[in-house]
Automatic annotation (TrEMBL):
Entry annotated with the keyword ATP-binding: yes
Protein's UniProt name: Histidinol-phosphatase
The keyword Transport belongs to this UniProt entry's keyword annotation: yes
MF-aspect GO terms: ATP binding; ATP hydrolysis activity
Family annotation (InterPro entries): AAA+_ATPase, ABC_transporter-like_ATP-bd, ABC_transporter-like_CS, P-loop_NTPase
SMART domains: AAA
Family affiliation: Belongs to the ABC transporter superfamily.
Family matches, as Gene3D superfamilies: P-loop containing nucleotide triphosphate hydrolases
Keywords annotated in UniProt: ATP-binding, Nucleotide-binding, Transport
Positions of transmembrane segments: none
């Protein structure tokens, strides 16, 4: 499903996001990168329709997001935020079952097919073995994977992930990125690891609330731009295994 933003802006006293326009094609994996505080999370929340009184418009599959009901939005968009609020009393399986909520009604209560979707989502993130564990007892990385399973169980057309690899060990980081890039849905994710960002179909670079570059990763993440925006030196290296470009970073300046 196509996600299109036009002229998005939001201020909280000072401007936080300014005049961002962007179209993400069906099935595309689009990465947002940028320094701390550059507006990535705010932009993701705006694209998910979670910030009231924003400037500009978001269209989902050609329809204005503002005209869809909360239930219609939840049937189309799943959002995994950096910090998830979840009742400590729930089990892992309960949390993932919440992902089915937008599809349930008095006429369509939770059914065995919903149960199978929940099982699949738990397996996809390697959490099936901990399904009966209490949320409160999980590690940070396990919680992250459960939240991603909840989003998968929602069977969205658009998956929005805010720094989904935070807390994850390297195996789970790579398997999560492989999982989401193979999903037949539109994926928008904020990432801090620029080498991981190189695996996205396209990247948008945020700086002080504006999207200052957008395009294929190799075109966007040039050493010159990395120096200007992230204030680091970057040496491009070629991985002989698959010829992808990775960067080795070094400080350009003393101090913070
Ligand atoms: N409700 C708010 N009121 C005031 N300022 C806000 C509010 N929400 C966000 N900000 C500010 O907006 C800026 C952008 O925040 P945002 O969380 O979108 O950045 P980010 O790029 O996701 O950062 P990070 O990489 O650190 O997660 C920050 O300076 C933040 O302090």
């Amino acid at each position: 499903m196509r996600l299109a933003a036009r002229g998005l802006g939001w201020s909280a006293g000072a401007p936080i996001v300014e005049d961002v326009s962007l179209t993400i094609e069906p099935g595309e994996t689009f990465g947002l990168v940028g320094p701390n505080g550059s507006g990535k999370s705010t932009l993701l929340r705006m694209m998910a329709g979670l910030i009231p009184r924003t400037r500009g418009t978001v269209h989902l599959g050609g329809r204005p997001l503002s005209r869809l009901s909360r239930r219609e939005v939840a049937q189309r968009i799943a959002f995994v935020e950096q910090i998830a609020d979840t009742s400590e009393a729930l089990s892992v399986r309960d949390v993932v079952e919440l992902g089915r909520t937008p599809w349930l009604s008095a006429l369509a209560p939770f059914s065995p097919s919903d149960g199978m979707i929940v099982d699949e989502a738990l397996q996809a993130v390697g959490m099936a073995g901990l399904a009966s564990r209490r949320w409160a007892t999980l590690s940070g990385g396990e919680r992250q994977r459960v939240q991603i399973a909840r989003a998968l169980a929602q069977r969205p057309r658009v998956l929005i992930l805010d720094e989904p690899t935070n807390h994850l060990d390297i195996h789970h980081q790579l398997s999560l990125l492989r999982l989401v890039s193979r999903l037949p849905v539109t994926v928008v994710l904020a990432l801090h690891d620029l080498n991981q960002a190189m695996g996205c179909d396209r990247l948008g670079v945020m700086q002080e609330g504006r999207m200052v570059a957008c395009g294929r990763p190799v075109e966007v993440l040039t050493p010159e731009r990395l120096a200007a925006i992230f204030r680091v030196g970057a040496t491009p290296l070629c991985d002989p295994v698959d010829q992808t470009t990775i960067f080795r970073y070094h400080c350009l300046e003393e101090g913070a």
